[in-house]
Amino acid sequence: MSLFDLPAHPEVPVAGESDTYPVRRIFCVGRNYADHAKEMGHAPDLEAPFYFTKAPAHLCLTGATTPYAPGTADYHHEMELVVALGAPVFRATRDRAEAAVYAYGCGLDMTRRDRQQDGKDKRRPWDLGKDFENAAVIAPLTKASAFGPVGSQTITLTVNGDLRQSATLDQLLHDIPAVIVHLSQYYHLGPGDLIYTGTPAGVGAVQAGDVLHGEIDGLAPIDLTIGAPE
Predict the structure, then answer these.
(1) SUPFAM superfamilies this protein is in (predicted)?
(2) Do 184 and 89 contact (CB within 8 A), yes or no?
(3) With contact defined as beta carbons under 8 Å apart, do 35 and 200 qualify?
(4) What is the DSSP string of the chain?
(5) pLDDT band at 222, cuts 50/70/90?
(6) pLDDT category, 35, cuts 50, 70, 90?
(7) Which of 68, 161, 172, 198 is the most exposed place for a label (fewest CB within 10 A)?
(8) Angle at 45 between CA 43 and CA 49, to 5 degrees
(9) Residue 20 CA: distances (Å) to CA of 100, 161, 215
(10) Residue range 114-131: average pLDDT?
(11) Domain definitions of the chain by residue range
C-alpha cells in the first residue's frame, strides 16, 4: 500500500471523441523555426533537433486563468503545434513516424525567460525556465486524419488582441516525421507522449491581466489568461 495517493495522469479532450488522451510525457523541441533561433541570438541549426522536457503534472488545459509564474520578472509566451503519439515507435523510419501520430493540437510553452537565461549563462539546465506549474498549456486535440498533412497551415498568437506571433508550419526547421525519427533514437516513444514542436519568432513578455489567444488552421484554438502573482 502506498504512503499517499498521487494525482492521476492529466488528460486532454479529443474532438469528436468521448474518450480523452492521457498524457505520460511531454517533450519540447527547441529553436525549431529559423527566425526564432535568430531572435534568441543563435544561428538556425539544421543538423538535428534538440529537446527539453516538461512534467505532465505541469500541463494546463485551455481556458484557464493561471497566476503570473513565481520566481520571474520576464514571463514569456511561445505558441506551438503539439503532436500526440498513438502508437509505439522506436528507431523509426519516416513512414513509421508519420503513422505513429494520433492527433495534433495547439499548445503554449510558457517560459520564465530570465531563469532560462540563467541556465544558459552558467551552462546549467533550463528546468527553472521551462518546467514549472502551468508551463505547458494545451487545447483539445484533433485527430491526424481530420487535420491532414502538416504544411502551410498558419500558426498565430495574439495578446490582448495584438498579433505577436505569425508563421506557417512549413517553416519548421525539422518537420514532424524528422523530429519523431530523431527522438525515437533515444526513447521508446508511444501513446501518451506529447511533442511540442517549437515556436515561431515573436515571443515576448506577458503581464498579469493579459489574455492570450492562439490559433493553427484546422485545430481548436487555445486561450490563457494571466492572473495576478501569488
Answers:
(1) FAH
(2) yes
(3) yes
(4) --SSPPPPPPEE-BTT-SS-EE--EEEEE-S-BHHHHHHTT-----S---EEEE-GGGEEETTEEEEPPTT-S-EEE-EEEEEEE-S-BSS--HHHHHHTEEEEEEEEE-EEHHHHHHHHHTT---HHHH-STT-EEEPPBEEHHHH-SSSS-EEEEEETTEEEEEEEGGGBSS-HHHHHHHHTTTS-B-TTEEEE----S--EE--TT-EEEEEETTS--EEEEEE---
(5) very high
(6) confident
(7) 161
(8) 140
(9) 17, 30, 21
(10) 96
(11) 11-227
- 9: cell is 495522469
For 172, other C-beta atoms within 10 Å of its C-beta total: 22
**pLDDT at residue 67 is higher than 90:** yes
Report how far residue 165's alpha carbon sits from residue 177's, in angstroms, rounded to the nearest whole number: 24
Q: pTM for this one?
A: 0.97
Question: Looking at residues 129-140, what average pLDDT do you find?
Answer: 98
Pick the CATH number of 11-227 from 3.40.1190.20, 3.90.950.10, 2.60.40.1940, 3.90.850.10: 3.90.850.10
> Which residues fall within 8 angstroms of residue 65, CB to CB, at 6 or more apart?
224, 225, 226, 227
40 or 28: which leads in pLDDT: 28
